[in-house]
Design goal:
Length: 296
């Protein structure tokens, strides 16, 4: 409840300017950051640790390692695509084979917290979620450059920590259709932000659990929406960022949906489908070239 108008500052929540319209590589019209979140059972226990003893509830997350991720990786091999897999440290510790299989296929591993805990402002676990996540991935020789916040939330403490830790990019905010450079509270430059596209979150359309009951939409509805979103994005010269989950899109009907959509995107022949790191590196290069041009 707002007790006073002074409770809410009168300023934009994001102090960064409009995203620059840098060109995409090789004359392509648009880009797609193809990304997945690996949560496994941490998606269930992060809401309440007591859920760990509810084994059927836990099995929703357990599907990821048993079936979902292998099927998603099989599809990406079939289509010759590379993706980013934002992985919780808990999932890496519990299922090391998942991380090994992602790396074996040449995909990017990103940081997704340790136990998928919500990074609310002032939360005591923000630093430990970062540190333990780094430690878990380091056991596979990985120092991730990309971060996606659990539950897609962020705060000034977290994004300041990401910059301090040398992260290249974040993919959590939902306020643009192009990458941009974050601006920290002190006015300093933050990490690159690659905004996710809300309509490409498969959990919203294809997952129903006892802790989050919602209707599951048929392939035709979601495929139509995803195609339309991509077509208009191509017209804008912008980009889309997927928020897919192998425990959702690795299920039979959802995998068929994903296959049809990715085949459509490939057939467009003007969409750069790649990892978060590649998009962030491209942005960084364009940013440096723009700055150099402005100085001459």
């Amino acid at each position: 409840m707002i007790r006073s108008y002074d409770d809410v500052p009168v300023r934009p929540s994001n102090m960064a300017g409009p995203a620059p319209e840098f060109p995409w590589p090789q004359g392509l019209r648009a880009a797609m950051m193809l990304s997945f979140d690996i949560d496994a059972e941490s998606a269930i226990t992060s809401k309440d640790p007591a859920h760990a003893d509810k084994l059927v509830s836990m099995s929703y997350g357990g599907y990821e390692a048993r079936v979902g991720l292998p099927k998603v990786l099989e599809l990406l091999r079939e289509l010759e695509l590379k993706a980013t897999f934002f992985t919780t440290g808990w999932a890496a510790d519990a299922y090391p084979g998942m991380v090994e299989s992602v790396l074996r296929d040449g995909h990017e591993i990103g940081h997704h917290g340790y136990h998928h805990l919500l990074p609310d402002p002032g939360a005591p676990h923000i630093e430990s979620e970062l540190a333990r996540g780094f430690e878990a991935l380091a056991r596979f020789g990985v120092r991730p450059v990309g971060y996606r916040a659990p539950y897609g939330e962020s705060c000034d403490e977290l994004r300041t920590a990401l910059k301090r830790e040398g992260m290249l990019y974040s993919s959590s905010w939902r306020d643009d259709v192009r990458p941009y450079r974050q601006v920290l509270p002190n006015g300093a430059a933050g990490v690159i932000e690659i905004p996710p596209t809300s309509s490409y979150d498969d959990w919203m359309h294809g997952m129903s659990t006892r802790f989050g009951a919602r209707p599951i939409f048929p392939k035709e509805h979601v495929l139509s929406m995803w195609r339309d979103e991509l077509d208009e994005t191509r017209a804008w010269g912008a980009m889309v960022t997927t928020v897919l989950h192998p425990l959702v899109s690795g299920r039979p009907m959802r995998l068929r949906l994903l296959r049809h959509f990715l085949q459509y995107a490939i057939e467009c022949r003007d969409v750069w489908i790649t990892t978060g790191e590649q998009i962030a590196r491209h942005f960084e290069t364009c940013e440096q070239e723009h700055a150099a041009g402005a100085r001459t």
